Model the fold of this input.
Amino acid sequence: MDATTLDADAVARWLTDNLDGFKGPITATKFDVGQSNPTFRLNTPSGQYVLRRKPPGVLLKSAHAVDREFRVQKALSGTDVPVANMHLLCEDDAVTGSAFYVMDYVEGRTFDDPRLPELTNGQRTQVIDEMGRVLAAIHSVDINAVGLSDYGPEGNYFERQVGRWTKQYRASETQTIPQMDQLIDWLVANIPDDDGKRTLVHGDYRIDNMLFAKDRPEVVAVLDWELSTIGHPYADLAGVIMQWQMPPGNEGRGLAGVDRAALGLPTDEAFIASYCNRMGLPGIEKFGFYLAFCFFRMGAIIQGVKKRALDGNASDPARAAKLGSFVPMFAIAGLEATKRG
Done:
């Protein structure tokens, strides 16, 4: 079985035995979004669900952690962070070929393009402000109260992350990219001292990983928690800014060169200032490091996507191969970010 298919009958049998109130059969439809963990909408007589699974095949160690995704979203139920209701985690590969979890289907709208062309200027301002509000909510979660204090190791988050993603990158490396090697060397030499900030971080916080209500600028669910951990909040904030540095359009999904004022969108500086205000911070020094780190990590991630495409394990092989060609671009952008204050 490949990453694009799901044995709906096997899932229905498992859910019948394990989920109260479930009634089959299942009609499964794969979502087009997502390159990491294949995700399916399940239509059943008892309701609509979403199933998210690991891709089959040989995987990089610690990648595709659906068990962590399930745990963190379940822990966030009842907090100020909007998440879907979690039902069950299945870690028995014998059921469908890989581990998966099942959650409620949440009705909402998604925005793939941060220019938000379908909205008015006022609505754009509200949507991006809501994005900032939810980011601050994630970083304000009491990790002890929700049982996530052990969700990530102690110590210097960026030291740990640079080491982790360097190993992941090397494990999926298919050619030498000099700029990526230069960026890794710079990051290792410039890791900030541990300042004691230790919060929940999403790890891939961007507008296309959020579901908004159909009729108002309110987030109803934050999605795709695969990279979440306990770490440093500036990584999430810099991740938003990194995405906005990308070219606009279907591939870059960024705001580079866009007249933001004309569209009612904030500058990088205004978004960062709003975040700092919500978190009670005077400002953020050496933001260039955090931005460079995010470019590096994304480059490492899409290198892994490319490797899975070559190995035949990608959720969308054609798109995965194309994404992989962008690794040098992320490395170059990361080196540019090192010059930023």
